[in-house]
Amino acid sequence: MKFRVIYLHSHDARSPIHIIEQTTGWEVGWINRYLDREYVRRLADSTLRTYAHNLLHFVRWWESIHHTGDIVEGDLAESTLLDYVRFQSSQQPRPSASLINDRVAVTDRALRNQFPNAPCQIARGFHQAFLRRGPMGLARPRQAISRLRVRVPKRNIVPLSVNEVAHFWSSFRTSRDLAIVGLMLLHGLRSAEVLALNPDDVLLAEAQLRVRGKGNKLRFLPLAPESIQLLDHYLRLERPNPCSPALFVSLKGPARGTRMSTAGLRSLFRYHRRTSGIKLAHPHRFRHTFAYDMVRAGISLPALMQLMGHADIQTTLRYVQITPQDVYVEYARAVAQHTRPVPKISS
User: What superfamily in CATH does domain 162-324 come from?
Assistant: First the structure.
């Protein structure tokens, strides 16, 4: 059996993303019911797409063992998720630990939601909902979290150097492309946030930018003078007319005037990595570079958290990297302000 993700054009309460068996069109019911449930919760289409592809991987593994994509409660065993992790860990090339954990987490949620009375007791391998002490001493429930996680190596944030940024930047020729890189480097935008921008999100007179982040959360960012100049030049001289209601659009070819796609953005960066020779110049690397530069400039963590659109300050803390030179400078500054009297050593 061959399973794939399909995209539906539906105006009812069903998810626009489903998984079917390619030959017969049979829907994988337990997965699609879960996607419908998450759609009703108003999760973003991009999140549903990620869930669907993670569940597609699981159902393909399940079918290779049981020769069906359908699941009944009696089919599940206590070792189901552990066997799934073992399978992924034995693949070559091996998926990253984060990807394995994401697949297991969404599979666990889907199975527990659709088969709450499964004899496998999937939740045994997971912390049950527990009480967390709040700031006022009151306890409140938290969602169950998985114990079954592959250890994720600590990720070191590697920013681009000044020379790498300058060399990569010099390979661009249009204000559109320079503005896209500028919004990532000078404002820390994610690639999806850049592509989702519309012209009315650019408030040039107020030097502000309205950004829709994860969970469709709005945040307003100050615009640097360089970004204002690039955006103004692009809007006045390069952006086609008529055009789709998108800020960044294709400038040529059959898709001219339509919103720039994720594949188009990847292709743009791939081409300029090749021509400039800067192999680490990926879109998210510019976001990392922005955060690193802000920390080095002394910005406060709460302010950086707001600029980056993080929901948890622990995510922002990843960008705080203390070097031995930083320790020396901070120590020297603190000693210079030291007011405690030091006993003199008699000669």
Answer: Intergrase catalytic core (1.10.443.10)
